[in-house]
Specification:
Blueprint: E1 5-8, E2 13-17, H1 28-34, E3 39-43, H2 61-72, E4 78-83, H3 85-96, E5 101-107, H4 122-137, H5 142-147, H6 154-157, H7 163-178, H8 182-194, E6 209-214, H9 222-230, E7 235-240, H10 247-250, H11 252-265
Parallel strand pairs: 2-3, 2-4, 4-5, 5-6, 6-7
Antiparallel strand pairs: 1-3
Length: 277
């Protein structure tokens, strides 16, 4: 499937993969920053955003789509960055095509992901719908955050429910949620039922890796991200206190600073001169 993709900047290529629900636009927190020096690709995965399909598919079909995307743009080697589900797809791409990727950045993701999300109640859903509607009308409205948002499911996605984070919800999260297809939901549901554990295969990953996690993440726990880091030979790990699954929107300055430091520590991940011929 030919994916809708947002490209920005110029230079060494970086493939940025969103989570579920999501879209390429939801990766703007990273692409806006990285595209000042690099060429970023942020596709809408199959069944998400503008890459719509009515046909059922499996999670592994994403890998074929993404490889085709890289070939279409003549990208021989790039850096991988994935958030949540996007991180899992990044791991799969790197394991299947190791020669195509120079490094791996995992955001709120893991090779054996597990969650600790409390049961969702009808009241949770009611507050979430009201909070999302009010935030769409008036993004970042503090009254909405304090009165409704902190009682909604958003409290599990963001520990620090700041107005700026709610602006990201309005501009990126809710539109992506509304454009996530039934086929995408079915593919993810089937994958979750089958289980996922790639820990034993991580020994085959020899490129530098960066893992960022939120301490209060109940969707993909910080513990599962920390477990993944132990199996990677060249891994830097940061776990941010008082944050959850959407921590890049909670503490963007800190996240981007740590990403920048990692790029400086491992310049080979964005250096054409390191590409083997």
């Amino acid at each position: 499937m030919r994916l809708q993709v947002e490209t920005k900047g110029a230079g060494f290529p970086i493939l940025c993969l969103h989570g579920h629900p999501g879209s390429g636009k939801s990766m703007a927190i990273f692409t806006d920053y990285l595209s000042e020096r690099f060429l970023t690709f942020a596709p809408d995965l199959r069944g998400y955003g503008q890459s719509q399909t009515q046909q059922r598919f499996q999670m592994l079909d994403h890998l074929d789509d993404l490889l085709e995307l890289l070939n279409e743009y003549n990208v021989g080697r790039c850096l991988l960055l994935g958030w949540s589900l996007g991180g899992i797809l990044a791991i799969e791409l790197l394991l299947k095509y190791p020669e195509r990727f120079s490094g791996l950045v995992l955001i709120a993701s893991a090779a054996r992901p597990y969650g600790q999300h409390p049961p969702t109640t009808p009241l949770d859903l009611f507050y979430t719908a009201i909070a999302a509607l009010l935030n769409a009308l008036k993004p970042g409205w503090q009254w909405n955050i304090d009165t409704v948002g902190k009682r909604s499911l958003f409290r599990y996605l963001m520990t620090q429910q700041t107005p700026s984070a709610y602006h990201y919800l309005a501009s990126h999260a809710v539109p992506a949620y509304l454009k996530t297809s039934p086929a995408a939901n079915q593919a993810l549901s089937a994958a979750l039922k089958s289980g996922y554990n790639r820990l034993a295969d991580l020994k085959n990953i020899q490129v530098p890796c960066l893992i960022l996690a939120g301490s209060n993440d109940c969707h993909i726990t910080a513990q599962s991200s920390q477990e993944t880091a132990k199996y990677l030979s060249k891994c830097t790990l940061h776990c941010y206190p008082n944050t959850a699954h959407l921590f890049p929107w909670e503490i963007p300055t800190q996240v981007l600073a740590d990403l920048e430091q990692w790029l400086q520590d491992y310049p080979e991940v964005v250096d054409y001169r390191q590409i083997p011929f």
